[in-house]
Amino acid sequence: MSSEKHTAASAETLAIVGVGLIGGSVALAARKRGMVRRVIGLGRNPARLEQARSRGIIDEGVTDYALLGDADLVIVCSPVDRIVQDVLAVAAATPKETLISDVGSVKGAICEQLATQLPARFIGSHPLAGSEKGGFENAQAELFEGRVGIVTPTAETPPHLVERMTRFWQSLGMRTLLQAPQEHDRVLAITSHVPHVAAAAVAAMLSDEAAPFASSGFRDTTRIAAGDPELWAAILSQNAPAVQRALATLMQQLDRFSDVLANGDLAQLQQLLLEGQMRREVFEATFGGAAGKSTS
Amino acid sequence: MSSEKHTAASAETLAIVGVGLIGGSVALAARKRGMVRRVIGLGRNPARLEQARSRGIIDEGVTDYALLGDADLVIVCSPVDRIVQDVLAVAAATPKETLISDVGSVKGAICEQLATQLPARFIGSHPLAGSEKGGFENAQAELFEGRVGIVTPTAETPPHLVERMTRFWQSLGMRTLLQAPQEHDRVLAITSHVPHVAAAAVAAMLSDEAAPFASSGFRDTTRIAAGDPELWAAILSQNAPAVQRALATLMQQLDRFSDVLANGDLAQLQQLLLEGQMRREVFEATFGGAAGKSTS
Hints:
The structure is a homodimer of 296-residue chains.
Chain A: H1 3-7, E1 11-17, H2 21-32, E2 36-42, H3 46-54, E3 60-62, E4 73-76, H4 83-93, E5 99-102, H5 108-117, E6 122-127, E7 148-152, H6 159-171, E8 175-178, H7 181-204, H8 216-222, H9 229-238, H10 240-263, H11 266-291
Parallel strand pairs in A: 1-2, 1-4, 2-3, 4-5, 5-6, 7-8
Antiparallel strand pairs in A: 6-7
């Protein structure tokens, strides 16, 4: 393999470990944009891999890491509690030129462990795109377009790995941002993990009797609560300290609402709602500006 | 006026007090479905009324209740803290045959006060349709289609009023449900008011530094936080006791998350997320079944 190939965003052979929503979408997007000649999917269930192959998501499905030897780039799309072991298995089965990344929603623990073991081969990623509907059946080639792709080097990561992964996500249509893994986890606790907990907690309140009276506000506020509990339990527990801190902040804010409702302080109640509205506008300006018209 | 006219869903002349998102959409929907011959809009701002008229939302804009004399049906679409006074002003200005309803998101206080003063002329409604984007500029003739319209009679409400208002909302494409006003407020605290508070509290957590990392999960969970703080402060404060109780339930659920995160109890964490996912599925089955494919 030439060094030119290593700095280009394209890969002759891309391997996806875990061909679900994200893995399947990476495969479709890379193929659609002509970035890869061949996509290998690695999974545990041969029947599922064959379905993914027959849908044109991957070219070949394998269940054995030893068959990944050709891959120039391997993206590990496993649940966060399996990423470290899967990355190590990929590293053991592939030549040292093969670059390995992941798409986990938590980065601190994963990147710290792998930084010491695979400093020159692994770099963490987190593409901010997804859906509460998992599985390659819901994969889309356009999933990443206009969205943010986070790349999380550690102090040990060589600059050319940062450059390669950054270009890869950019080639899929993403705007990329660099973040230290621990910083990523602290911020994502606020932007993603605690919103998930809040959505689940609000959804859990819905009695059978109340269900017919829930409408579009309830639908949107609780949408992410439809996500897979197993995947999300792993994410939340891998980021437990930051999630606990953000959850404490949320509960303080809810306590303030409770207090002003008890006091009947209408001006203060408006003020609390205004804070939410203003921060929501900051979000819209950032997200809307980045992604154009938002889609669901 | 004939008695036939009073029991039909249609009205010769419909008056809307407060021509905003909901009032404008009622006007457009009633007109589109051929239910009315003429729509009068009452508001405080003549320039805004003229804009609504030139957009074909109303036929005539008036600022004086005395000019509502012709209306067969008046729908008061004011903010909840102005509904009682506006309904009383409509009642004073119109003949006793004119039916008056409202679209307020809180019903207990409003319906109790009006039940004693206008038992034979007023009946509360709450069409479960809306948007965080207010104003008649966002009004849509299809806003009510497939959605739930709640009609909230009291013990004093004559059955023919229940029938007329039920048919009116059904003619706009709604499925209607009857609910006692206090029961409405208790249920809506869970399905709408506390989700709004949660959305506002989650949105308020977003620092400038975190904003670029917020994505579609944050967008949906906080969408309703973009709603007008003044309107929502009035809603929450008119339903303060029920909102406080539902908020306490939400905080208990968040405390459970906090505890299992502190204990590192992955199975219990999954269980909590599963509760949210299951209740979300109950919602989807109810809402999706009612409204067909959900739209935003």
